[in-house]
Amino acid sequence: MTVNSAKIYSLAPHMRVRDESFGLLFYNTKNTGLIFINSGDLIKAAALKQGGTKAALAPQNPVNGEAILEKLLGRGILTC
User: What is the rounded distance in angstroms from the CA atom of residue 29 to the CA atom of residue 75?
Assistant: First the structure.
């Protein structure tokens, strides 16, 4: 799956997210599953809740940010 920098990415409707010391913790309200993403400070939960472009979601390191966004899109955590 290719990430397009012009698209707006947001959380899937059934997902919740919060910041943790390791990165992001996602909660799937459909199956009550937890998903841990070791992203450090690269992407913040508040930014994902608000939605935005690749550049807005991971401004300090777009290359690593793109890899994380691809992973989140592939797992159905994000939509665009």
Answer: 14
* Straight-line distance from the first to the last Cα atom of the chain, in angstroms, rounded to the nearest whole number: 12
Strand order in the sheet with 23-28: 15-20, 23-28, 33-37
Match 């899109």 to its residue by tokens. 73
- Residue ranges per structural domain of the chain: 10-79
Could you give the CA distance from residue 51 to residue 43 in angstroms, rounded to a whole number?
11
How far, in Å, CA of 15 to CA of 6, rounded? 23
Average pLDDT across each block of 10 residues of the chain; the chain has 80 residues. List them in order.
Answer: 69 96 96 93 93 88 86 93
**The two structure tokens encoding residue 72:** 């989140």
Query: What is the predicted pLDDT for the residue at 60?
Result: 85
